[in-house]
Design goal:
By secondary structure, the protein is α+β, with helices and mostly antiparallel strands. The model has no long low-confidence stretch (mean pLDDT 92).
């Protein structure tokens, strides 16, 4: 939740009490340093913002939701009031590791940035980006310094560029130097960097180098045209909610037919509230994000969805089939500000595709949906409340160490061992699926855990499992757990869990609880 009176949040995979690594997120403030206002609720680092000519802010964002933490530091854009956060380049592109120090080039739609290493200083190779060509891969980028490899992912150069200030597409003020100590934890030389004029055709021309200290961050003194001043549309004092309108969730999906997607699952990403790296163990990787399932919203026959959500909360969505299993999931996050309605054309649709012919989404013809809350134990994620009650009621009578059934006794589903037993069951096991997706780093349609789970396949069999048939509600518990990557827990402290429960009560007007769902079914009008 984005507020300016909250304590620090911390990086999930680094630091400790002796070296706490607080997360930097985007804020605005007055010229005198007053009126500090957070404009993003993202739970991980957002760095090095600069203002584009159109008044938006471009910045580097470290985005590792359910994937390896290493190569995903990409370029994003956002309005100064925190609306319309959107990818510019590199959410799934592994090289470069880090797209830092972005600046728009005067008189151009292109961007200069520094390709840097993950475990190093903010310095490396210079890259020219043309967003009009695309948002991923090698096609949109031109290496201005091809003799300098992308640090870490391609190697460790000795000569590094940093702090580019563009004068044109080919000419830039830069800092440059030969340094061996750019990796994290090493001390850099006192005077390693100097100020240079760089031209993509003729190379470097020294402008200034101090004999005692490094010279960095060149800025031209010539007056520049101010960027456009964007008028904020945010009603900060109004209801703390917004809306999403999706015209067709199937747009961008290739394996589904119209009508296959029945609902969207909405998952919130709580920030880490304490500094110890990789603690507590929330799931099957060392650096799982916090998770809390708000619930689901319906998708109309034409693929459209229109629904309310709390504002200032980092969220991601999953497109669900008729069995409530995720067909596709986001590996990033989005949010709305108070009073904002954010729209998109589809699920993983290309930003370069022309929108479909004008039509009115069916969902927009009705009131925005409330969120149908998920099963107990999914807000916040708690394996002991989501899955263990089903095991206790249906499974533990056979699957315990003292069972007379020798084979059943080997599969221990008592509270001390059930999580590990279920996570490792079957081929592929949930652990196999989660770790493979974590390493792959992208969302692959139709390869989400519940659709491929040997465990869920066994539990959902029409004949049941040794006479035990789970209810649709119980199956939904397992499906939710599997598709949110098998979290053991979803919060980083008991105090955070209590705060999230308080927020859930505060959002009651946005939610439809199970009892309300039954009432709505009996009284559809």
């Amino acid at each position: 939740l984005a507020r300016n009176d909250l304590p620090d949040c911390y990086v999930r995979c680094g630091g400790g009490a002796e070296r706490p690594c607080a997360v930097y997120t985007l804020h605005t403030m007055n010229a005198d340093g007053g009126d500090l206002t957070p404009i993003s609720p993202f739970e991980m680092f957002e760095w090095e913002p600069s203002v584009a000519p159109d008044g938006t802010i471009i910045y580097a964002r470290w985005d590792y939701v359910d994937r390896d933490n290493m190569p995903y530091m990409s370029l994003w854009s956002i309005n100064p009031d925190g609306t319309n956060a959107r990818l510019v380049y590199g959410n799934y592109t592994k090289a470069t590791h880090c797209t830092f120090e972005p600046r728009f080039i005067p008189g151009s739609q292109k961007i200069i940035f520094t390709a840097s290493g993950h475990h190093s200083q903010t310095m490396g190779s210079l890259v020219l980006l043309e967003p009009a060509i695309g948002s991923e891969g090698a096609a949109p980028i031109t290496r201005l310094t091809p003799d300098t490899p992308f640090p870490e992912i391609e190697g460790w150069p000795r000569a590094f560029y940093a702090n580019p200030w563009p004068l044109s597409e080919r000419t830039h003020l830069v800092a440059w130097g030969i340094e061996d100590g750019v990796k994290e934890g090493r001390s850099r030389p006192a005077n390693g960097m100097g100020i240079y004029l760089f031209n993509a055709g003729s190379g470097l021309e020294l402008l200034y180098r101090d004999p005692d200290i490094s010279s960095m961050y060149p800025i031209p003194l010539k007056a520049q045209a101010p960027p456009l001043a964007l008028v904020s549309s945010v009603n900060w004092d109004g209801p703390q909610e917004g809306k999403f309108l999706i015209s067709d969730v199937a747009r961008g999906l290739t394996t589904v037919k119209p009508g296959d997607i029945k609902a969207l699952r909405i998952v919130a990403l709580p920030a880490k509230t304490q500094p110890w790296m990789n603690k507590p163990a929330l799931g099957l990787t060392r650096d799982d994000p916090g998770k809390a399932v708000l619930g689901t919203v319906p998708v109309e026959a034409d693929g459209s969805a229109y629904f309310r959500v709390p504002s200032g909360v980092a969220l991601f969505f999953q497109a669900l089939d008729a069995q409530g299993r995720a067909v596709q999931t986001m590996r990033s996050a989005t949010h709305v500000q108070p009073g904002q309605t954010l729209s998109c054309t589809g699920c993983h649709d290309s930003r370069k595709d022309t929108p479909p012919p004008a039509r009115t989404p069916l969902a927009s013809l009705r009131e925005a949906s409330k969120i149908q809350t998920g099963p107990e134990g999914s807000w916040t994620m708690r394996f002991d409340k989501l899955i263990q009650p089903v095991l206790d009621a249906q499974c533990v009578r056979c699957h315990h160490p003292k069972s007379e059934d020798v084979e059943a006794a080997k599969f221990d589903l008592t509270p001390m061992h059930s999580y590990d037993s279920l996570a490792g069951h079957g081929k592929p096991s949930l652990r196999d699926l989660v770790l493979a997706a974590y390493r792959e780093g992208v969302s692959t349609e139709g390869k989400n855990p519940a659709q491929r789970s040997a465990l869920l396949s066994m539990l959902s069999a029409s004949e049941g499992h040794h006479g035990v048939k789970l209810s649709r509600t119980d199956i939904d518990r397992f499906t939710t757990w599997l598709d949110t990557y098998g979290q053991r827990a979803g919060t980083f402290s008991p105090e955070q869990e209590l705060e999230l429960e308080r927020l859930r009560r505060a959002w009651a007007e946005l939610l439809m609880e199970p009892a309300a769902r039954r009432t709505a079914a009996r009284n559809p009008e």
